[in-house]
Task: inverse folding
């Protein structure tokens, strides 16, 4: 049955505890909201020495539920001081802690303040706090003097509809905007309490670090301990394995401000590091009253054999020695510590041996991939945030988001951020399929860097898997299967990431936007083109290359020889008719095809004639340069009637790629 909450004030709300101006605010507020509770909190060492704030709990009525997707009670704080202080935000946190069982709304709170400039001050304070909740600041005088029946709704609209809740770049450190991963967080926490280790892997920006922060928060709520070791930090991976053990203890001591006396780093020799680590992690355990700790190793690739940026982890035996030591301590001590390893690729637990030695954590840490959002999870996140911003999504758009972006929350949020930018100020607005298609077009055209960011770690450290994606995108299925046959782990990883899926004997992309991105980036590597498609590629590449070459020659020739001499060189390669016709033209006009007849082969002749000027750009090989340029000139647009064999086309691609790369590198 639909909630029929009506405006009003609950009889138990103690109006007499509030001063006269706040009583007037409460009565006016009760005309639009249902006020359920009141109370006081103190900031400071004690009630006697603390600063007092009063608060209300507000239950949204129909209009506010419909306009802003609010269904839980909100906190409203009264700041009765002439100057607004940032500490007022701490009052909101105190009230949340007091009413945890009520499931108050975490996304929005209201602050009433005697400071007439409270709006500007709150906006300024929260400007750099990406994850802050929505705060609706209202000055006492403005509210009490307003005769506008829509004043309060317009205040909410101003702070709800103008905020882009989709545009988060970094990992989520709070749970306000944390969607879809709660079960995973609880699973990892429960494994830790059972003294079991865990592994979590996934693509960049898939939410791994947000899950880590979620695990950290969940443990703090249970008064349990954890420490995050950022393996990407040079302070960690530049240390040898024995000093890395000391570094873990240093991080624990630093996070919890422990006053315990530990051995200095200099004593952590290779012979004694494991012994000392065991002694001191046990000392911490006893100090905490036998509470165990979760060691979280984030971006584990940075200490993994074969891929770490530090030589002693990448090529030496430090990875093996570190995990021999840590695993031995873990096995000897019961309920003292467990560890969670987090990264992109589970290579560290899949290698059976390292340089002929057994990998101590081979298949010994149960791991899983962070899963893409389902359609339901996508709907939950987009609907919750979108409705708050005045964006009402068509039901079909949710499934399109999940399909086009494979349930990758980072990509989905940024497409929705573009929807927000395209939607204008008049809210609420319906997000139709047509509006979604416009946003998708903008994203695919202007924000391809987000797609590259997601898969860049594969290109950097796991090239075979990146190449498999590329070959699948361009339709080179034979080469895809050839790489897949080298190791079943490759396809297992790509499926685990949620990038591809297997349907019968065939593989296909789950994130269509990444397929389109790789296809566009590698379109000149597509195989099995028709004759028409081959000619179209030649024409396109030449039309892009020729203006770039003209610009390079024009600028470089002038820079080396000066304009007069450079013009003389260019006129010198023209035939008699063109030399006479264009000799009076300005230097730049000679390179403008609308003002003079300058041909592709003229560009080759200029560079070849002035080879000493250009040799450093074109790899110091005049013969190769000339053969590549002649081949490109031979297969020009007006040569379409010629038969084009596949081996000729393959060679032509080599020629184009070489010249394109050299021109791009110099530019």
Result:
């Amino acid at each position: 049955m639909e909630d029929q909450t009506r405006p009003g004030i609950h009889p138990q709300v103690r109006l007499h505890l509030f001063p006269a101006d706040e009583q007037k605010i409460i009565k006016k507020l009760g005309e639009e909201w249902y006020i359920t509770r009141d109370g006081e909190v103190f900031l400071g060492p004690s009630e006697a020495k603390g600063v007092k704030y009063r608060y209300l709990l507000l239950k949204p009525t129909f209009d506010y539920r419909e306009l802003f997707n609010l269904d839980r009670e909100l906190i409203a704080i009264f700041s009765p001081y002439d100057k607004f202080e940032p500490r007022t935000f701490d009052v909101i946190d105190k009230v949340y802690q007091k009413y945890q069982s009520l499931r108050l709304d975490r996304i929005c709170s209201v602050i009433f303040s005697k400071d007439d400039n409270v709006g500007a001050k709150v906006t300024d304070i929260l400007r750099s706090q990406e994850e802050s909740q929505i705060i609706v600041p209202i000055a006492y005088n403005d509210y009490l003097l307003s005769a506008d029946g829509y004043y309060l709704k317009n205040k909410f609209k101003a702070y709800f509809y103008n905020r882009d809740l989709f545009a988060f770049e970094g990992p989520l450190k709070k749970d306000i905007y944390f969607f879809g991963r709660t079960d995973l967080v609880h699973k990892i926490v429960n494994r830790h309490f059972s003294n079991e280790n865990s592994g979590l892997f996934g693509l960049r920006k898939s939410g791994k670090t947000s899950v880590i922060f979620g695990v950290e928060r969940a443990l703090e709520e249970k008064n349990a301990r954890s420490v995050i070791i950022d393996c990407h930090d040079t302070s960690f991976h530049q240390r040898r394995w024995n000093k890395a053990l000391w570094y873990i203890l240093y991080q624990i001591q630093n996070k919890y401000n422990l006053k315990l006396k530990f051995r200095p780093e200099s004593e952590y020799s290779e012979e004694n590091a494991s012994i000392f680590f065991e002694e001191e992690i046990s000392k911490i355990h006893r100090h905490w009253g036998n509470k165990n700790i979760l060691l979280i190793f984030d971006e584990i690739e940075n200490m993994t054999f074969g891929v770490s940026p530090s030589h002693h982890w990448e090529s030496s035996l430090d990875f093996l020695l570190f995990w021999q030591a840590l695993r031995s301590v873990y096995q000897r001590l019961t309920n003292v510590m467990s560890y969670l390893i987090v990264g992109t690729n589970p290579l560290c637990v899949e290698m059976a041996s390292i340089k002929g030695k057994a990998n101590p954590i081979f298949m010994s840490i149960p791991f899983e991939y962070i899963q893409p959002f389902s359609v339901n999870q996508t709907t939950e996140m987009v609907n919750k945030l979108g409705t708050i911003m005045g964006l009402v999504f068509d039901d079909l758009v949710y499934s399109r988001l999940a399909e086009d972006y494979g349930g990758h929350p980072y990509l989905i949020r940024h497409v929705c951020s573009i929807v927000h930018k395209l939607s204008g100020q008049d809210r609420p607005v319906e997000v139709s399929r047509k509006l979604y298609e416009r946003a998708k077009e903008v994203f695919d055209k202007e924000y391809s860097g987000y797609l590259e960011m997601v898969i860049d770690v594969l290109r950097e450290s796991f090239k075979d898997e990146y190449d498999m994606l590329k070959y699948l995108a361009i339709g080179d299925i034979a080469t895809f299967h050839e790489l897949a046959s080298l190791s079943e782990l490759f396809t297992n990883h790509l499926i685990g990431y949620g990038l591809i899926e297997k349907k019968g004997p065939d593989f296909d992309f789950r994130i269509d936007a990444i397929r389109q991105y790789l296809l566009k980036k590698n379109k000149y590597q597509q195989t099995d083109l028709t004759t028409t498609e081959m000619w179209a590629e030649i024409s396109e590449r030449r039309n892009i290359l020729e203006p770039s070459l003209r610009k390079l020659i024009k600028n470089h020739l002038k820079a080396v020889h000066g304009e007069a001499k450079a013009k003389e060189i260019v006129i010198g390669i023209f035939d008699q008719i063109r030399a006479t016709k264009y000799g009076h033209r300005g230097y730049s006009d000679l390179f403008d095809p609308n003002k003079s007849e300058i041909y592709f082969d003229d560009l080759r002749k200029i560079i070849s004639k002035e080879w000493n000027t250009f040799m450093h750009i074109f790899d110091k090989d005049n013969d190769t340069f000339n053969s590549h340029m002649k081949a490109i000139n031979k297969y020009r647009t007006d040569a379409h009637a010629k038969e084009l064999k596949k081996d000729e086309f393959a060679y032509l691609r080599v020629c184009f790629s070489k010249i394109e790369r050299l021109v791009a590198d110099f530019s």
Remarks:
- The radius of gyration is 33 Å.
